[in-house]
Amino acid sequence: MNKSSVKKMIWAYIKEHRAVTAVYGAAAVLFYLVAGLYGYGDSVRNMSYALLLVLFWGIFAGFWGCIRYVRHLSAVLHAGEKAGEREGYLPVSHTMTEACFHKMICDMEQERRAILSEYDEKKKDMADYYTMWIHQIKTPIAAMRLLLEENADERSAQELEELFKIEQYAEMALHYARLDSLSGDLLLKTCDVCGIVRQTVRKYSVLFIGSGISLSLETCLCHAVTDEKWLSFVIGQILSNALKYTPHGRISIYGLDREKQRTEGRASYLIIEDTGIGIRKSDLPRIFERGFTGYNGRLDRRSTGIGLYLCRQIMNRLGHTIEVRSGAGQGTRVMLGFLQE
After folding, report:
1. Residue 172 lies in a domain
2. Which terminal CB of the chain, N or C, has fewer other CB atoms within 10 Å?
3. Sequential DSSP letters for 197-260
4. What values do phi and psi take at 214, rounded to 5?
5. Domain membership flag for residue 44
6. 244, HSE (Cβ side, Cα atoms, 13 Å)
């Protein structure tokens, strides 16, 4: 509690008790007027001694009351900062009004906890349902892929590409449902980031083949303590966006020079760069917001605004960084940062 807060509390105490002070002052003036009108001789002087004595004890009582007021109000403000357990920090009530407010706060806290508990239970049930549904939908998707591969022709290649997109949307929904419980699902270990990139590129090869976009994948020495499954999802989302918004040209994946990183004490960076339509400067500050699609998203109505939001959330929880540099018609560069070992 700083001095400014104490001053505000003292001023509030004075304002709340100014009516009492005014009444005492008016009573003293009235006594003097009555004594003067009736000419009681030394009564005015004798009454002044009594009024001075009353004034002394009044100042003392006011000072002590101000101290109690500041302490009591500080305790109330401190209790207000304790979300979820305020009733345990509330000070003892001194008046019936405070006791009523105390009971109201306790009842409201109990109702709030009950509502939150019910909400959390429903949210968990919904997440469990979505997780189960997504796992179940993978079975017919796998069966459809086998059937299409057995009857491979020019048309089936396009159908495989669309089927792959369906599978990726289902995977995005699964990761979104698990986002709140991500900490309990992490398996952190030292991983070869470039190895994860190669696996993800192979996974997305059907989209590269269908789009006709060329890929430049440079070998980079980049190891990081991370979770392979979640990092692979992030890289896949970035590649998916690059393919979606690059009608022609190429996608390049490379890293920074390892020696230069050591000498400059910087983190390792994996860079995914495309020659696509880019992102408007006005949209860049908001691309990681949930549900934000921007100008490009309005052109492609399939955009959900969830992919980059998930990427930022996952990278933050893994202790990594993600940065996007782009401009309209200038392509997009995504930089994934990993702390050096």
Report:
1. no
2. C
3. HHHHHHHTHHHHHHHT-EEEE-----EEEE-HHHHHHHHHHHHHHHHHT-SSSEEEEEE--HHH
4. -80, 150
5. yes
6. 18
Q: Is residue 175 part of a domain?
A: no
Which residue segment(s) compose the domain that 37 sits in?
A: 3-91
The pLDDT of residue 111 is 84
Among the candidates 91, 118, 136, a domain finishes at: 91
Say how many Å lie between the first and final Cα of the chain, rounded. 42
Ordered alpha helix ranges (H), the chain: 3-16, 18-38, 43-80, 96-150, 154-177, 193-203, 205-211, 228-244, 258-264, 294-299, 307-318
CATH of the domain at 286: 3.30.565.10
Determine, yes or no, domain membership for 277.
Answer: yes
Does one domain contain both 77 and 196?
Answer: no
Quick check: helix, strand or coil at residue 186?
Answer: coil
Helix axes 193-203, 228-244, angle to 10 degrees: 50
Give residue 265's pLDDT: 45
Pairs from 153-157 (Cβ < 8 Å, separation ≥ 24): 157/209, 157/210
For residue 281, give both structure tokens.
């400067």
Q: Give the orientation angle of helix 307-318 with respect to helix 154-177, to 10 degrees.
A: 50
Q: Are residues 87 and 197 in the same domain?
A: no
Tokens of 295: 């100008």
Answer for the pair 261, 340: CB distance below 8 angstroms, yes or no.
yes
Closest by alpha carbon to 310, among 185, 175, 184?
Answer: 175
Provide the number of structural domains found in the chain: 2
Average of per-residue pLDDT values in the chain: 80
3-state secondary structure of 50: helix
- pLDDT tens digits along 116-137: 888 888 877 877 777 788 778 8
Among candidate residues 266, 195, 287, the one with its CA nearest the CA of residue 235 = 195
What pLDDT score was predicted for residue 14?
Answer: 75
Residue 276 DSSP class: S
- Report if pTM > 0.90: no
